[in-house]
Amino acid sequence: MLNFSSPHICVGITPSSIAISKTTGIFRHSNHVVAENTLRHEQRGVFMHLCTQLSLVIKENGLNNAIAKIVLSDSLARLWMVEPPINASSMSDLQAATAARFQTLYGETPSQWLIQADYQPDRPFLAVAMPNAWLEALLMVKRDFNMKIIEIAPQSVIAYNRWCHLLQPGSWLVNHQEGKISISVVDGDNHIIGYRHVQCRLQDIAGESSLTHFFRQQALLMSIPMPSNICFPNLTHELSWLKFARAGQPNYRVLQRQPYANLNIVTNSVDLALTGA
Amino acid sequence: MTRMHIDFSPQTLSQMIHRGGWRFITAVTVLVMILAGVASAIVLLHIKTQSLEGQLADLHEQANRMEKSKRKEAIRPPVANQQATLVMMSQLNLPWAQLLRTFDTISSEQVALLEFSPDTNSRIIKIVAETRNSSQMTRYLESLKKQENLVNVRLIHHEINTADKLNPIRFEFEVQWVTGGEAS
């Protein structure tokens, strides 16, 4: 049944923690973090434990019947780029190419995985996979608390969809969490045509010159020119200087909404929960 | 500004509606308003069309009526013609056969009928005749008076026709004929 009075929540899930933000206000402009739970070390990375924690947090905060958006950390899903086959003539050709690429990259058959992609016949496109079992676990939580899940997607996809109206052609969209940095390359038609996932701690490259050096290196590795705009949809304290950075080459931009801008120190899961809010 | 359609949540109608939120309500409201506007426009048009059709039917009827009356007027002959026709009819309706039979029975070789002019309105016939002498004239008039269908026999004028060497008497008289036994 439709119920527009149900609370709107956004659940951020990283391998080690979960956080829930709640959106309030008639036009849902105000977000605040309701709860954050960190898993014990031995439970980290096990999705069933994450779901158990999620049930616990929902129960504690009385969020039954909530309308939820779930943002997965990029490291919980698999993201990869697919080059469309030259003679592709139908959607099934693109799907087959996506599945074949998955098998090549990860050495696994895609039968246990749920694959979705932004299928494009004429340019490289982003594909995402998450295990079937994880979706089942999330849907079980949904059933237990009579929730409505309106979106489940990884951080990079959520961030892109949220900010795509502000991205200039040729920009990079940079997401980071738990020692990993992901770069999405946007083309002139505002499609993601490149994606790169790098193991790197943010604090190691947080200075202006090292950050620029890092991105120059990534551009070289991807064999593409350095972009004019690099956008950060989430901002942690390591990069707080970006807010005051002068316009230069490249131009660093922080994409943030007001309620979020005041939070200087956020953990990864809170960051995800606020990205989707 | 193309969103990526990557979403692992089950795609249901309620999910789409909730995702839309206020935008969905606004869109539905706008759609309903548009539909209501279109519906009311259709109803108004229908009403307008019906009234116009009614007016058109009235006009057609009026036009038909006018055309009929025109046609009637066209067929009706002029008054003079009508009167002439009536006169002719009444003249044709004269009981010629009966009158002629009556005059035949009483006429003799001594009386010659010269003129016979009937007036249908007054049912009076003016007759001009000639005889040898006045006694024959009187006898003829007497015999006319005896006829059932002739009344008011009146001698108007008589004279001796000197142009004729036999000097006959030319006399003019009138009689009125009756139908159904009564004089008008």
- For the largest sheet of chain B, list the strands in their spatial order: 1-2-4-3
Gap between N and C termini of chain A, in Å? Answer: 23 Å
CATH architecture of the largest domain in chain A: 2-Layer Sandwich
What's the β-strand tally of chain B? 4
The fraction of residues assigned to DSSP E strands of chain A is: 25-35%
Strand fraction of chain B equals 15-25%
Query: Order of helices and strands of chain B, N to C?
Result: HHHHEEHEE
Q: Let me know the CATH homologous superfamily of the largest domain in chain B.
A: General secretion pathway protein M, EpsM
Which chains have the largest interface? A-B, 33 and 18 residues
Q: In the CATH classification, which architecture of the largest domain in chain B applies?
A: 2-Layer Sandwich
Rg of chain B, nearest Å? 49 Å
Q: How many domains in all of chain A?
A: 3
The tally of beta strands of chain A, per DSSP, is: 13
Indicate the low-confidence ranges of chain B by residue numbers.
none
**Which structural category do the helix and sheet elements of chain B fall into?**
alpha+beta
Q: What's the order of the H and E elements of chain A?
A: EEEHEEHEEHEHEEEHEEHH
Characterize the overall form of chain A.
Answer: globular
Task: State the gist of this model.
The complex is a heterodimer of chains A (277) and B (184). Chain A is of the alpha/beta class and 277 residues long. Helices cover 29% and strands 30% of the residues of chain A.
